[in-house]
Design a protein that fits this description.
The chain is of the alpha/beta class. Helices cover 32% and strands 22% of the residues. Helix 2 links the parallel strand 2 and strand 3. It starts with a strand and ends in a 5-residue tail after the last strand.
């Protein structure tokens, strides 16, 4: 069985107050606490790859996890805010077909769309699907099909 850990970026402060390009908006202190909390929360999941939207807040969200696991954060523009969810889902699913477990850090617009696509292909989602900042959806994939899904709330910040 392989596993997709679909992570929404952690808290990054108020978009309206940020003065620079939105792609460069960093995590807040609360966001960094959430990012460090993912290390313990996801401690039992063997990962072969960690991918992320190129946005700084997404990369920073999985950076402590990558450092702890001795992995690089691989930036993938298909996980960027406003990207085509079908392209993102296809890329993630291809990694799982290769037998790898993957963590992917993305945005609030892509997460529900990717979850919907997984549900269309067999993942059974609970009725109260939600995606707050810093949360993780664990999607199990076995023999070419989606077999499970569970929600992990954001780590305490």
């Amino acid at each position: 069985m392989s596993r997709l850990l679909l992570i929404r970026h952690a808290h990054a402060g108020d978009r309206a107050r940020w003065r620079g390009p939105d792609d460069q908006r960093p995590l807040s202190e609360k966001g960094w606490r959430q990012a460090r909390g993912l290390v313990a929360l996801l401690s039992d999941d063997g990962l072969a790859r960690i991918t992320s939207s190129p946005s700084l807040r997404c990369v920073q969200t999985v950076l402590p996890l990558a450092e702890t696991r001795g992995l690089q954060v691989e930036e993938d523009p298909r996980l960027h805010e406003g990207s085509d969810p079908h392209e993102a889902f296809t890329a993630l699913e291809a990694d799982l077909h290769a037998g790898a477990s993957v963590a992917a850090s993305t945005h609030g617009d892509l997460m529900p769309a990717i979850l919907d696509l997984a549900a269309e292909r067999g993942a059974v989602l609970p009725p109260d699907v939600r995606w707050p900042k810093g949360c993780t959806w664990v999607l199990d994939h076995e023999d070419g099909r989606w077999v499970g899904a569970r929600f992990l709330p954001p780590p305490e910040a």
